[in-house]
Amino acid sequence: MASRQAPxxxxxxxxxxxxxxxxxxxxxxxxxxxSSARERAGNRxxxxxxxxxxxxxxxxxxxxxxxxxxxxxxxxxxxxxxxxEDTEPRxxxxxxxxxxxxxxxxxxxxxxxxxxxxxxxxxxxxxxxEAVAKSRVHFQAVDPDGDSHVSWDEYKVKFLVxxxxxxxxxxxxxxxxxxxxxxxETQEVLENLxxxxxxxxxxxxxxxxxxxxxLSFLNSEHSRxxxxxxxxxxxxxxxxxxxxxxxxxxxxxxxxxxxxxxxxQDVDDGCVRDRKREFEELIDANHDGIVTMVELxxxxxxxxxxxxxxxxxxxxxxxxxxxxxxxxxxxxxKYSEFFTGSKLVDYAHSMHxxx
Length: 355
Prior knowledge:
Belongs to the CREC family. This protein is an all-alpha fold and 355 residues long.
């Protein structure tokens, strides 16, 4: 506020009419700021009760795109934010080497595929515990009466409130089975959410979710049934010929649109290369050129040990310049951008500094 008031004070002695205009414009702008605050609050509430678009430690996003942060998520785990907030390169190098020593269980100063697999599984378990904690908080938000379960109607009211509807009016309409008067897009989202709700509702179905069932509803990666639902959605989006599976050409197809410049073309080319490698090396388990629902379920399961081992081997291969099938400290530092999202320059000096 101080920086904003200083120029106004300077205008007062010489330009009173201009000061008045500035103050008038400033005052008229304030409701827009309040509106933005309300909008942000609504978005925050919506994010608390909707299944997240992004799932930490899961290779594919809901829309079938590769999770570009996956390697950082399974390498840094819950230390990601702390690593990103520390902008001092020397501190980052030391933190990276601390992580290296934790992964290197037998302290031979190199990381094997088995050690990396164990680390990936450990970080995945951390992601699960974090999801459980967040889900518990969100469950309380949609269970105001504290009866330890949430009905579909209760949830529907909460969801529509985040869309700007009045909670009492919505509750009354639902109670009397009246038309909710919602737009087509909101109706489509509601139908999709109801499908997820049914799948999260363990037999016998009663449309009442307990806290653990609500966790499955929000985080499909932690429930086999919900994983299957997510897999079906991804296959539906990728499958172009209707055979309920997808080929390499279907998987690498980019969204419809034109590339406006060479930089955009380079990004698209890189995306195609990444998706092709992912398909051939990890998703298509039997290497027959077709990915079935079972193969995609195994690939998407964050606690699948076989998938974690394959991922570990791929991560090592990216940085394994010595071609000995191990990761060594200098390789991790040199390829720090792959493992942490941050490029640490002068890695040779870093080795001398840290060891």
